[in-house]
Amino acid sequence: MIPYELEETTLKLPDSDQCHIIIITGKAKRHQRFALRIQEEFGDLVKGWYEIDKNEAIKFANERDKKTNKFNENPESKLTRVIKVFREVGIVRGAKKAFRKMQLLIFLRGMSSDFDINQINIFDGELKRLENRNVVDKQKIHPRDINTLEFENELKSKKAYFLLTLGGPLYKDFIISSVEGAAINQHAGHSPDYKGGNTIDWALYNRDLLKVSSTVHITSTGADDGPILKRSNPTIFISDSPAIIFNKVVALGTELMIDAVKEIIVDKNMKVYDQPKFVGNTFLSKDRG
Asked: What is the distance between the alpha carbons of residues 208 and 236, in angstroms, rounded to a whole number?
């Protein structure tokens, strides 16, 4: 669980007798498990659970932001139309290569139905066990409401020590610093080599099995590039599909997160491993083709 190839430093966190926790997740079953496992382990220390949902009404974003948020209200936005024109006239470079790449990556992940079925098979039984473990009701929030001053004030009002995240947008610095202790993110990937999205797919695509990993790191404004607390690899069998491997990685990461939080509660001098700059790759959705 220790990234020995990285430089070790010590992160000194503020002393506190009340290490309250705020959770931010997506809405998939793996995210639900994350939130409920945290609540099972830490009980009344959890003071809030926000579930990011694009179907939720925008609550905090100001009127100017709402007017410019074309994608939520009008899928045929100006940028969408520009992209269409570029595609129609054949200006998008490497289209054939990108399409082949997309085919390979879709093969790795499998069809979306297979991906969802594997989530059900892996997590449903445990979710039933955990369903009575929640100590707070989840609150749905639109992703555009996350990086707002209103949400910052809401977090500060809860006087939380930890902000624990799985999924969601990149977080602004004022959101990260809204908690008294540490903001910590769970990343399904091997940082610093594989940051961003779909990183398990990319590790499999590159036959880089030693870097099919889960990373728990201090949240930063960049994609998965904060100091690392824990990193480990799941057990993989030949019969495992890419979807099963991905969900194993996420389940492992949640347990790494729990271990890291427990250690910080006991000792505020936390060993971390800085990620070097300009090392590894950050993958975006567009990289899939």
From this structure: 13
Name the DSSP class of 27.
Answer: S
The DSSP bridge pattern shows strands 8-12 and 269-273 to be antiparallel
Under 8 Å between Cβ of 188 and 246:
yes
What pLDDT is recorded for position 82? 52
Separation between Cα atoms, residue 165 and residue 178, nearest integer Å: 14
Buried b vs exposed e over 178-209: b needs ≥16 C-beta within 10 Å?
bbbbbbbbbbbbbbbbbbbbbbbbbbbbeeee
> Would you tell me the crossing angle of helices 242-266 and 29-42 to the nearest 10 degrees?
20
- Predicted confidence (pLDDT) per residue in 237-271, tens digit: 999 988 899 999 999 999 999 999 999 999 999 99
What pLDDT sits at residue 253? 97
Query: What's the token pair of residue 231?
Result: 């990193």
What pLDDT band is residue 87 in, cutting at 50, 70 and 90?
Answer: low
